[in-house]
Amino acid sequence: MTVDKGGANLAGLHAINAQRERPIRIRQTKYLYNVLAQARLAIKRRARPMLGFKYFHCARILLAGIKLMHILRKEQCRTAQGSCSSTAEQFYALAA
After folding, report:
1. pLDDT of res. 34
2. Which parts of 7-74 are beta strand (E)?
3. Which residues pair with 27 in a beta bridge?
4. Which residues pair with residue 2 across a beta bridge?
């Protein structure tokens, strides 16, 4: 399990490991929270102007689409051909 350098997380995992037959391996990363917060900011920036979601199903679909576009824009998605495509071309390839 990967956690940040916070002491509470580490102490909690050590307490759990004391009770388990097979312990959980712990890996600490100094700025883990910053990475998670930055990934969440893109979604919050797009969803904040909206007045909220009426149904959970619609919210799930819309948030997944926002996250997909963020991934494509940051070029974190690889195409099958290995060629560099524009964001729009990658989106249309996934939609088709």
Report:
1. 63
2. 27-28
3. 2
4. 27
Instruction: Report angle CA 96, 80, 66 to the nearest 5 degrees.
Output: 55
Beta bridge partners of residue 3, listed in sequence order? 28
DSSP E strands, 1-94 = 2-3, 27-28
Which regions of the chain are under pLDDT 50?
none
- β-pair partners for 28: 3
How high is the pLDDT of residue 10?
A: 82
β-bridge pairing 27-28 and 2-3: parallel
Among candidate residues 1, 37, 21, the one with its CA nearest the CA of residue 12: 1
Contact in structure between 9 and 29 (CB atoms under 8 Å): no
Strand, coil or helix: 49: coil
Amino acid 65: pLDDT: 82
